[in-house]
Each structure stands twice: as structure tokens, then as C-alpha cells.
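Continuing from yesterday's entry. The apo prediction looked reasonable, so today I'm repeating it with zinc ion included to see how the binding region is handled. Same sequence as before; SMILES copied from the compound registry.
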Amino acid sequence: MTKEEKYDFYCEEALSGKTKIEILFESEDVLAFYHTKPFWEKHIVIIPKKHITDLVSVSDEDMHIITKIIKVARDLAKDLNLEEGVQLLTNLGKFQDTPHVHFHLAQGKKIK
Ligand SMILES: [Zn+2]
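Holo prediction written out below.
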């Protein structure tokens, strides 16, 4: 890994099982879990299991996985009664900290 390459926490730690995560939802394509170092009071991360670097490079063929992620966000918001002050956030391209598509489902005060 060169200095410029960012670490893919999701493939290397979360999906590999190296880091223990508290899973909220899992299907063949999508995984949702509580963030291991939350920056909001309630902070869930939703990722595709397939390695997709970022939203800018999602192929049309993989777009259905992104749709599934949005659906999981909807279902979790309903199931966990996340109604007030909830956000679904993602960064694109080089603005991402981790080079694997991920969505933050966040609620409450920013704690970091
Ligand atoms: Zn990855």
C-alpha cells in the first residue's frame, strides 16, 4: 500500500470479520452495522458487500445494489423509529475517507 492509498476498512476489517461489528441487517449484497467509532449519537453504516470504490464509479450493472442500500436505510429508519433529525449521508470519490462505498445513517448530536 502506498502512502496515497487509503485503507479499506470495510473489506479489510468489517467484511473479513477481523474487527467485531454489531450487525443490524445482512443480505447477500448489503451489510448494515453500528459504526465502530461513531460520530453521531446513533451512527449506522450501510455498505455493499461487493467492493465498489465509490459512488462515482458504480456501474449501471451494480446500481441495483445501491438501490438495495437505500431500501435498507428506509427499513432501518422505520424499525428503529429514527424519525427526528435523521440523515443519510455519503461522500463521493476522493472526498471519502474509506475507498469503499458507504452510507451513514445518523441521528442525534455530532459527538466527534
Ligand atoms: Zn472494499
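Comparison notes:
- Residues 8, 10-11, 51, 100 surround zinc ion (CB under 6 Å).
- DSSP finds two helices and five strands in the chain.
Will overlay with the apo model tomorrow.
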